Amino acid sequence: MNIVYQNALAEVSTILPLLPKDLLEKIPKSLLNFIEQKKSKSYMLNVNLEKTLSEQNLLKETRIILSLLYRSYLCDPEQSRKLKIEDEIEVNKKYSYENLFKK
Amino acid sequence: MSTESKEAKDFEEKYKNNLLNETRELSSKLAELILGIQDVENFVNVRSQLPNLGITCNNKLIEIQKEFKKAGLSMYVEENEDYGIVGSSFLGDAIIQDLVNYVLKGIQNLEEYDYILSQASQKKIKQIQDLDKISPLKKFFARIKSWFLPGEQVNKLLTEPEIKKDSLFAYREVEEQLWNYNLRDNIVSSVVTQIRRQKYSAHVVPGLVKECVIPGLQKLGLGDLVPELEEKIIEEYKKDLPDAKTYQIRKEYMHLFVPDFNLENQEENGFVRMNIAKETKSLKENGITLNDLAFIDSTVNASERQLVTNAIREEIAEPVQENSQVKKKEEKEISE
Known about the structure:
The complex is a heterodimer of chains A (about 100) and B (about 325).
Chain A: H1 3-15, H2 21-24, H3 29-38, H4 60-74, H5 77-94, H6 97-100
Helix pairs in contact in A: 1-3, 1-4
Chain B: H1 6-43, H2 53-70, E1 77-80, E2 85-88, H3 90-133, H4 136-148, H5 166-180, H6 183-197, H7 205-219, H8 226-238, H9 270-278, H10 283-286, H11 290-298, H12 302-317, H13 321-335
Antiparallel strand pairs in B: 1-2
Helix pairs in contact in B: 1-2, 1-3, 2-3, 3-5, 3-6, 6-8
């Protein structure tokens, strides 16, 4: 696995224990296991507890993985459905015929 | 929703003090700006009596605060006994934000006018300097010439610079709007603006309106404005719908994009959601909340998510090396 992803998984693994128990339990054990197995064993994230999550110096890939976890397991189903449709719209717009001729 | 508890009273006091300080600050900024403008106006021979919008705003706040009080409401605090939460009043916030925005808009207009005036005064200074360079004899003949030809100016160079007053008129217009602000005519627009400003998800809005807006409107004797309010909110959200040529949203998902006030079982806890949205605390204070994750999520785009999903999918498809090694080792141990 790409080293950047391994580092990102190491960051995710450091962050997840800060989630409330009820949220953490929503993430499948197999996925948590995958994160533990694939994360870099040498990379360490320094979490500054005085700052908010978004103020932490996180890798872009970490943010993306957290976003995926949020959408897939943590947010409420209505919100998840809406976010999914929004993504579809975004991807659709990108490949819409009108944009094909734009430089 | 009562506002009787000690927490609610403390909250109200604190909110009022902060607001008072902010409006005072805006008023003194405007006073300073107006004073500077008057100085330059004297120099370029312009007179405009400028009112201080900060004072108008303060008076308007007091006027509306009295109307709220008369209706048995607080403009500053709302208390939800079921959830034990004390927070600012949604209606009050919407109005205050709108009134303050008038002042901020006015400041912007005056700053533009101040800039135009300073350009004009610089032009005039240059004219005076240029005039000093002309010989006295030439000035004398110009004066004689103007005696016979009254249309001719003595000092052609010393003409008052033209001043564009668009921003000054805009300032006066804002002042008039602020002066005329009243609950019946403006509250719908204030609430719609506040909902858009806070970027509430469409499916949360009906619950929010039901819980935080309608009871207040009814107490203020403005319950008849509810249909208009709902209509305006729907119009606002419709503006964000994707172009139908690019993407068409299925009917059953429409309430996720445009609030549907007739749909039942929607998000009821608007008040709680609204208050959670206001809070961003350090990890030490709050740990990680759903709100933090929602914020992180909003900073990532669809393509990035797709890319990482693909990478993870490929990785999952591959056999996990460490695991298979352990398995082999276990198998070996068992066979031995």
